[in-house]
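> @MW can you paste both from yesterday?
MW: sure, first one:
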Amino acid sequence: MTFVCTLSSEDPLLAPVVSASDSRATLVYPIGYDDEDDSSYQLFVSFDRAPGGVVEYSFCITCTYSSGVVHDFWDSKVVANMISSSDRASIRALLLDATARLIENTNFPEVIMHSFAPGLPPKALAKYRRIAQLFRNQGYRVRETVRGGQCIWRFNREAAAARGRRARRRRGR
């Protein structure tokens, strides 16, 4: 298998396949193909309802094989073995941009995100923390916890808005 990235810094942002409803928003971008077996690869970025009704943010790379079978790649170690460092950087840039767009265009009061694998190295956690910063930039309060080595982030927009109102009241505005 040889992954061929179709993203380019010279190309404008790709138009994603979009799916949206009151409880879900999904963007899917074509990112490459396998030059040996014609499989295609996509970046999947989504808000969706998780058990318990909370909205969960997730992302992965999907591969659609020529047979029509789809395989999801969630583990960064697996992706690192398939895709070069420079191509992963391009995909990461697209992930961050797509995530920022989703956050800006949705209004979920609470969202959770968790790392796929426990015990991630600092470099892998940096990607998640950059995503958390995107939520902060849109007015969410961010709380990070660790359970069994797996990182979990909770983003709460209402709490951030209430905190801002309380601070303005204390200042007399």
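MW: second:
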Amino acid sequence: MGGQKADGRAGRRSPQFRSGDLTRRPPEEAGDLPSDEATLRYEPGRDTPVTADEALLVLRRRRRAELVRQYAEADAKSMKAAGKPATLAAALEDPAEMPTKLPPWNVRKVPVQQRLPQPLHALAVAHAEIEGSNLTAEIEMLLWKLVRQPPRDPQVVRAEYLEYLRETVGADRAKAMLDKVFGTDQ
């Protein structure tokens, strides 16, 4: 496994060992808006929905992680042959690779894949059928309503998810499943 990787490293190493200029900075060092690498945090009392700037930061962070994985797996020659920038640093600076604004609403939809409990899926499909709709349209409408509201306190979300789990999988499994999603109690 010799040769130089597209991100400039020799051989194959985990993305966690990438160079210092690509590591995450804590949010407090990021200024008014977090950097592309910073995680967005809940602010108590917030009464506005997520902004396009915040969504772009998350989109860029996710794209950056995707590029880091791609360039860790490929060599510079194959990336260049695929019409991509030869190095990770070049890709991160390329507007064709890193979004500079949110895409318009009328472009092709992105496929997403989520895991759902089978009974929830069956109930949701039946619900959509009764409404003369389909599950994709129902989920799209629910998400559209969600993003028009201010983000909720993570503790409230955690409590609601725990209630859902207790009702659906039982109290004995709920806590362990909750901790897988949200981490252990702070």
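> thanks! The chain has two domains: 15-93, 118-182.
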